[in-house]
Amino acid sequence: MRRRALPALAAGLLAVPSFAQSSYPNRPIRMVVPLPPGGATDIWARLVAEPMGSFLGQPVVIENRAGAGGMIGTEAVKNAAPDGYTILFHIASFVHTPVVLKRWPYQPLDDFAFIGKFGTTPLPWCVRADLPVTSMAEFIAYAKGRNLSYGTYSPGSSGHAFGQLISDLNGLDMQAVHYRGEAPMLQDVLGGRIPCAFHSMTGSGEAIRAGRIRPLATLGTQGIPSLPRLPRLPTFVSLGFPAEDFAQSGFIGVFAPVRTPQPEQQRLVDAFRHAMTRPEVLQRMTETDTIPLYLPPAEFRADVAAYLKFWSALVERMNLSVEG
User: DSSP states of 187-232 as a string?
Assistant: First the structure.
C-alpha cells in the first residue's frame, strides 16, 4: 500500500508548479500610442509590435489615443489595470507636455515601469519648397520682420520649444500652431498653410527626400545619413546654435503601469529586447534615419530622468507655457 501511495503523492507534488506557473499572456496586449496614426510614433510602434507579439505568443494591438499633446493616452495607460495587458509606446513628449502645460495627470518617473528605450531620431527644421531660402542664415533673414507661423506636432513638444527658441535667439516673431500629431501638421505644410516646422525623418522623410519640403538644419549631433546633399545637412550645433540645447535628441521607448507585476514586466522586457535584435526592425530604423539606442529598464529610467531635468530647466529659462 505504501509503495503505491508514494508515487501518487510524488506525482501530485510535481504537478503543483504547473498550476502555479503564470499563463501570461493569454490574450492580446494593447499598446497605446498617444498620438494619431500615420506619424512617426505610430510607425515606430507598429515596427516593434509584431516581433513582440511573436515572442509573447499573443498579438500586440496598436491603439491610437491622441489628445492634449499625448497626455490623454499616457494617463489612460497609467490608470489601466496593471496586469501586463496595457503598455505605452511614447516619445519625449512623455515629459515635454506636462512640463510645458504645467499639468501633471501623471508623474513620468513614478507612475510607470520602464520597459526599454527604442532609440532616437534627428529632427530637421524644414520649410516649404516654395520659400526662397536654402539655409538657416537665409531663413532667418527672410523671417525677420515677417509674422511667420510654425507648426508643432503637439503643444509642449520639442518641435514647439525649439521652434520658439529659434525665434527667440534670432529676434524673430514666429507663432506656434499646434496639431494633434505629425501627420496632420505635415499635410498643412504641404498644403501651403504653414511655412515651416520641425519634422521627423520617419514621418516626413518621404516628403523631404522628394523635395516637397526643404530641410535646413537638424537637432542632435549625428546629422541625417540618408540625405544625399553635399555637404550633408548641418546640425544646429555646427551652425553655432548652443550645444547645451540643440544637441539634445530626446528618446523613444516602451512603458507599463508601475504596479505591473514583476514577472509580467520581465516578459515585456524580454519581448521588447527581442524586437530590438530583429534584423528587419534595425534595417527599417536605418531606412527611416531612426537611431537604435536600446537601453534596458534601469538605464532607460536614468536616461529619462536626465532628460526631464534638462527639459524642465529649458522651459523655465524660456518661460514657455501653453494654456489648455
Answer: HHHHTTS--EEE--HHHHHHHHHTTSEEEEEESSSS--TT---SSP
- What per-residue confidence (pLDDT) applies to 38? 86
Helix (H) / strand (E) containing 152: strand 149-152
pLDDT at 150: 97
Grid coordinates given for 123: 529632427
Q: Identify the bridge partners of residue 213 per DSSP, sorted by sequence position.
A: 128
Asked if 96 contacts 156 with a C-beta cutoff of 8 angstroms, the reply is yes
**Is 18 inside a domain boundary?**
no
Grid cell at residue 84: 501586463
Per-residue pLDDT reduced to its tens digit, 238-274? 999 999 999 998 999 999 999 999 999 999 999 999 9
Single out the residue in 246, 265, 280 at which a domain terminates. 246
pTM of the model: 0.84
CATH number for 81: 3.40.190.150
DSSP letters for 90-125: EETHHHHHHHHHT--SS-TTTSEEEEEEEEE---EE
pLDDT one-digit tens code per residue, 55-76: 999 999 999 999 888 999 999 9
